[in-house]
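Why Prolactin regulatory element-binding protein isoform X2? Reviewers of the renewal asked for a concrete example.
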Amino acid sequence: MNMALAGDVVATGQDEYCHILKFRLKKQEAKKANSSQGKPGPNEKGIRKRKSSNSTAKNGGGDTKNETAEVSVEKLQVVQTDFSQELLQKSVCFNKDHSILVTGGADGFVRVWEFPSMKKTLDFKAHNGEIEDIAVDPDNKIVTVGHDFQCCVWKKDQLVTGLRWNENLPAVADRVYRYQACRFGKVEDNKDALRLYTVQIPYKRERKPLSCYITKWDGKNYLALLTQPCGNEVISRLSVSDSGTFLGLGTVTGSVAIYIAFSLQKVYYVKEAHGIVVTDVTFLPETRRGRELMGDNEAALLSVAVDSCCKLHLIPSRYMFPVWLLLVLCAMMIIAAVLLLQHIFPGFL
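Here is what the prediction returned.
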């Protein structure tokens, strides 16, 4: 199953169909009756109970509240998004303003739908074989990765360019790796910049496992900026934090890792956190409510797996040393060294 979220609407793939669901969260309050209401009458026999204290009486006579949340789900639309023999939708993605929905199937076709009417506007062959992942940039360019070793950028149904992550790595042959995932992300402290991140995994399993790779691309001209290995556990899922600061990775062996997006350096890793394939990872949104949940931590990543467990991974806040203070300390050390030399060797200056 794959899914994408747009406010209170979820687009989720099940077999060859995409289900559009709307959910509502309602809180219910249930009050338990005071235990005194259950006292036996004058003609009834029962166990004599101790009188409640004054403080209990002031607080409502011992009443307890049971607050529960109820999620109601309404099915809005169902459309068929794959027509292959496997009958399987592989990926789904909303654009930035949630005006279009893009799906990719095992048949290699990309289908673009108006949202929320779900009127199909585009239907074109993007890959020879399954489409593994889809991402949409702010200009509605579509990036697709497939089993045919290709990563393609599309403007509507026209191919803009094909990406080659190993162009500057001559030791890596073309068909040894295939693309597994792609995600766009912001650039911290630069609102006009955009980055695309892709994950490459070995096409075949070798006796000696090969390393997987992460590549960072310029999201405007699609030039490769940096490629780094990310271990020999096969990557299954990729996520980018709202600010573009961190990348989250899940593996087929159940491990979870977090990388700094700028340098692609690993800052967090739990081996076999689930012990089975990680089916999705996502960062808590960097909203007011999301930051309340994170507390003093800089980021929080949720991971889910085939074991039906959801786990939370926290990155503690990094305390940065102010650059200006560092420069002042360096200047003071230089002045102190000069004065010391002048004292030891009179006439030094």
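The CA atoms of residues 91 and 104 lie 5 Å apart. This is the kind of structural detail the renewal will allow us to pursue systematically.
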